[in-house]
Write a structure and sequence with these properties.
128 residues; mainly alpha; two-stranded antiparallel ribbon; 6 helices; 2 strands; globular; DUF3267 domain-containing protein
């Protein structure tokens, strides 16, 4: 669930910024239920920016999943020991892991301007 919410965070910022994007669920997965669960990633958001879209908006969308860590820290500081149980701690650690931007996210964050320049010149898409 956290991986899908991670991708939704990207999509939410792109939607708010008015940038077109595509969402793919289970891209290139193996057939069958085990192949479906073992396939990674479970969801992918691919922005389709135009030459007038700002690079800073792509950077914000790329790093948006980091905001998913906020609820865990708020509950940890004001939750009166809610994270003291092992199950809650494990869930919090899993959620925090899903809030980390991926290497592809960092690539978009650092090189969004280059991708937009290439797009204006007629070359393919954002770094993956």
């Amino acid at each position: 669930m956290g991986l899908v919410v991670h991708e939704w965070a990207h999509a939410a910022v792109l939607r708010l910024g008015g940038i077109d994007y595509d969402v793919s669920f289970f891209p290139g997965h193996e057939s069958g239920p085990l192949g479906l669960l073992a396939s990674c990633p479970w969801a992918v958001v691919r922005p389709n920016p135009t030459d007038r879209d700002p690079a800073w908006l792509l950077r914000c969308a790329a790093l948006a999943p980091a905001l998913l860590s906020a609820p865990v820290f708020v509950v940890g500081f004001v939750g009166d020991g809610w994270l003291a149980s092992p199950l809650a701690t494990a869930a919090a650690i899993g959620w925090l892991a899903c809030s980390l931007p991926s290497p592809q996210d960092f690539s978009v964050a650092f090189y969004a301007h280059r991708a937009l320049e290439k797009r204006t010149a007629g070359v393919a898409s954002l770094p993956r």
